[in-house]
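#onboarding

Welcome to the new folks! Below is a worked example of what a typical request in this channel looks like: someone posts a single protein sequence, and someone else replies with the predicted structure as tokens. Don't worry about understanding the tokens yet, we'll cover that in week two.

Example request:
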Amino acid sequence: MPKKVTMKSAKTRAVAPQARKHVRRVNQKMIDQMIALRRQGFTHADIGQRLDVSPRTVRRHTEGVSPQLVHAEDQTRVDLMQWGAVQIRAIQQRWHLRVAELDLCMKRLRTVVSQLDDMTIEQLERDPQLRVQFLMHEIWPPAHEKIDDLRLSRDVPTTFHRG
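Example response:
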């Protein structure tokens, strides 16, 4: 009596075991290598090719890791995030911002910088006046507005009493 062929067995027989691509699991050592290479400025595709994984896998495991923006041989550039953090810390000390308010400012800085294109970042890193304008027009006003709202919500009672 002939063997009954199911859909599942037909699919597994259709691809020879040696023709199947070996699925490689990503371990912590590989993730650390991906992050280190990404920080050195390698693209997702370059890293994927080096470690024999897809660029999508690299992108997924290095989300939030951007290439170093400072080059050792280029003394005219500053790290935009580090510079911004120092400036925001000075604002915090001057205006006596609480930790939650400082956090709002830092989150705004990270969000705006992450949305900039590489050429804009390069210009901001090289030009101190442009950095100050960037901070005073793109980072501080929206953060300041949220801080005011936060302070207002703390000072105003949540319920109103009728007299």
